[in-house]
Specification:
There is one protein chain. With 447 residues, this protein is an alpha+beta fold. Among the domains are: 160 residues, Beta Polymerase, domain 2, CATH 3.30.460.10; 62 residues, no CATH class. The protein contains 23 helices and 11 strands. The strands form 3 sheets. The chain has a 7-stranded mixed beta sheet with strand order 3-4-5-2-1-8-9. It has a two-stranded antiparallel sheet with strand order 6-7. Strands 10-11 form a two-stranded parallel sheet.
């Protein structure tokens, strides 16, 4: 397309944008950054996701606004007092606005060579060169808050309006440059309800094997972004259709079928960990630990996800019929992790994927919460007596004290009314049965 033909389309896009009610409310601190850059003679624009989201009617946060400028990193650092070298080799400097928020300010650039996730870049003279290296048309727009002008050389505003996700330029080349763009594109299409343009979809599918070359941390981060968003099933279904899921979650032998997708959407709130547990439970009942370790989840995250997944999509009926068994299970799961289990059960129930009846799920959740409200102890540390009380009775230090406290905890699980100091001391004197190396002995207060 010639420059002459391109200019009217850009101007038309700018006009439609100004008249649509979606004009970006750019934070004042960002406007002042641009004013200072332009006074110094450096053309500067807001770019990226904040512009895209403003077109969609979402204001975004102050920290979402990034800038592209003709100034080099050295010139940016000379111009502003508070800066952080975020990626000098790629032209990016972090600049603090007068509101204390850090913004990425990146020199116009174009790619010289690309290697999957790595690229050799050179500084460019024009904004158009910079926008041409971006992944999708909806991310290749720039807004100038002083001139109230939208620069949209690739038709991103039109694609947003028509609900289309389209790669900038040749899709095959875009995805070969950076395989993370496949997962980003699937996330954008799912989160924004976009139809993927056929050539872009074909380029994605062909490039899917390259996902295996990405770092596990980047895959995990993209997956968590999907699971933290609204209706994650849309992006997850695209993961399945494109073959991306089979690359980084091959253990899910049942795949992401209707039950898994419906349950993920049915989790109330943006609870990525519970949703991850739902994928593991309903995608094939796999052991969570190896997968979570491979994807570099932290030990705390992996513990919470595994706890939610360990109880499956619904409760064991024995837990409702046997209060002592329920309390023993609660102690084994851990007080802080019970919420994740309950959220998964309730989501599976809402999605029609629970193997248990509504009465069983709601009854067990209610009974467990009642135990918690009533202060039923889940560890020997929560009993009304402690080892020092037995020492005060003249007992000698040793394993007998631990065994006795474990036996008392088992007795309290059978009858919570026993958890009174005088009653437990009486039971200890009378010789409460020793449970041996049973589960109660190992329960300690969570830290």
């Amino acid at each position: 397309m010639t420059a002459r033909a391109q200019a009217p389309r850009e101007e038309a896009a700018a006009s439609r944008f100004r008249g649509s009610g979606g004009v970006p409310e750019v934070p004042g601190s960002v406007v002042r950054l641009i004013e200072r850059l332009e006074r110094a003679g450096y053309e500067s624009w807001t770019v990226g996701g904040a512009v895209r989201d403003a077109l969609r009617g979402n204001a975004g946060r102050a920290g979402d606004w990034d800038l592209a400028t003709r100034a080099t990193p050295r010139q940016v650092r000379r111009l502003f007092r508070r800066t952080v070298p975020l990626g000098i080799e790629y032209g990016t400097v972090g600049v603090f606005g007068d509101d204390g928020v850090l913004h990425e300010v990146t020199t116009f650039r174009h790619d010289v060579a690309t290697f999957g996730r790595r690229a050799v870049v050179a500084f460019a003279r024009t904004l158009e060169e910079d926008l041409a290296r971006r992944d999708f048309t909806i991310n290749a727009m720039a807004w100038h808050p002083l001139r109230r002008e939208l620069r949209d050389p690739h038709g991103g505003a039109r694609d947003l309006r028509e609900g289309v996700l389209r790669a900038v330029g040749d899709p095959r080349e875009r995805f070969r440059e950076d395989y993370l763009r496949i997962l980003r594109g699937l996330r954008f299409a799912g989160a924004f309800g976009l139809r993927i343009e056929p050539r872009t979809w074909q380029g994605m599918v062909e490039a899917v094997p390259g996902i295996a070359r990405l770092s596990r941390e980047r895959i995990r981060d993209e997956l968590l972004r999907v699971l933290s968003g609204p209706a994650p099933s849309r992006a997850l279904e695209l993961y399945e259709r494109s073959g991306a899921r089979a690359v980084f979650l091959p253990e899910l032998t049942d795949g992401l079928g209707p039950a898994a997708l419906a349950t993920v959407d049915a989790v109330r709130g943006k609870r990525a960990e519970v949703r991850m547990a739902a994928l593991l439970v309903l995608g094939g009942g796999v052991r969570p630990a190896p997968i979570l370790s491979r994807l570099r989840f932290s030990r705390a995250e992996a513990g919470r996800i595994a706890a939610a997944a360990s109880s499956g999509p619904g409760p064991d009926p024995v837990l409702l019929a046997n209060p002592a068994a329920r309390r023993r299970w609660m102690a084994r799961t851990g007080r802080r992790k019970l919420r994740g289990v309950f959220r998964l059960w309730l989501a599976a129930l809402r999605a029609g994927a629970s193997p248990s009846s509504r009465e069983a799920v709601l009854g067990l959740v209610a009974a467990a919460r009642r135990d918690q409200r009533c202060g039923v102890p889940l560890s020997v540390g929560e009993l009304a007596i402690a080892g020092r009380d037995l020492l005060a009775l003249g007992w000698s230090p040793g394993p007998r004290i631990g065994r006795t406290l474990g036996s008392l905890l088992e007795a309290v699980w059978e009858d919570p009314a026993l958890n009174r100091r005088s009653t437990l001391l009486h039971l200890a004197r009378e010789g409460v049965p020793d449970p041996g190396p049973g589960p109660a002995r190992g329960h300690r207060r969570e830290r």
